[in-house]
Amino acid sequence: MNQYIIKNTPRITAIHSLFTYTYPADYKFHGESHNFYEVIIILSGSATVAADSNVFTLKSGQAFIHTPMQFHNVYSTGKEKLSVAVFSFSAKNMPKLHNKICVVNNLTAVYELFNKANDSFIFNDIWVTGSKNDTVPYALIKEFELLILELNSNILEKHNTNSTGEKNYGLIVKTLEEHICEPLMVKDVAFLCNMSEIGLQKTFSRFAGVGVMEYFNNIKIRKAIEHLKEGLSVKETAIALGFSDPNYFSTVFKRITGNPPSFYKK
Questions:
Q1: pLDDT at 148 over 80
Q2: Residue 17: enclosing H or E segment and its boundaries?
Q3: What does each C-alpha distance from 33 to 24, 44, 68, 88, 192 come to in angstroms?
């Protein structure tokens, strides 16, 4: 019997936050990471997105998807106010949209989708806590899944050439990633990157929105989750990532993820 096999498609299992907002032209976010996906769509204005070692410039009608535990920062650029639509979610069968700029074909449809979501969900600030009619709005969730598929099918192939500052930022991040198992300090990172400490901190703060050491701990914890899932003990994981004190490692881990290391153990 002939048949057409449908490949796995995105399935949203939880919606965490959902909002549209307009920020001043000089607005800067605080760099962060979280254990769910996040889509940011530029409705008007332009923004710079730093994700891992990459820096992208997004304009109206473009979008970016942050993957779970990816450290990222977004800040307004240009002279216009920055309007964005953002939703964060957990999902299965997500396409590989890692560090790619996506194009939105119909911003009007995005506005309409978010307006319907505002009419359907219950919110605590930007956080979704339930639905207004006590039933799961499957049709609405399906529309968000279709939006993800649309973004996956509209990838911008050519990006802007990175500036010197963006290249230096990428060098710093890659250096931290290459030495993730070591207990580096700012002076060590500056030496490895052939930069002054002040220059390194200024460059990093500009693009990441946080200090070098805060970022370093974030990527260490992201790697720690992998080790824990592979079966390493908390102590083994701490030592493998340059933490001399497993208790301090556990404190940092919970501060960043919101859960103790045991949460990710097999």
A1: yes
A2: strand 11-23
A3: 23, 24, 7, 12, 25
Tokens describing residue 157: 């192939």
How many other β-carbons are positioned within 10 Å of the β-carbon of residue 118?
Answer: 12
Band (pLDDT 50/70/90 cuts) for residue 136 is: confident
pLDDT, residue 160, reads 63
**Residue 223 burial class via C-beta count within 10 angstroms: exposed 0-12, middle 13-18, buried 19 and up:** middle
For residue 108, the number of C-alpha atoms closer than 13 Å in the C-beta half-sphere is 0
**Amino acid letter, residue 199:** G
Sketch out the chain's domains with CATH numbers: 13-152 (2.60.120.10), 164-257 (1.10.10.60)
The pTM assigned to this predicted structure is: 0.86
- What is the longest distance spanned by two Cα atoms in the chain? 68
Residue in the block written with tokens 């050519």 = 158
153 CB neighbour count, 10 Å cutoff? 11
Determine contact, residues 46/118, Cβ cutoff 8 Å: no
d(CA 206, CA 147): 31
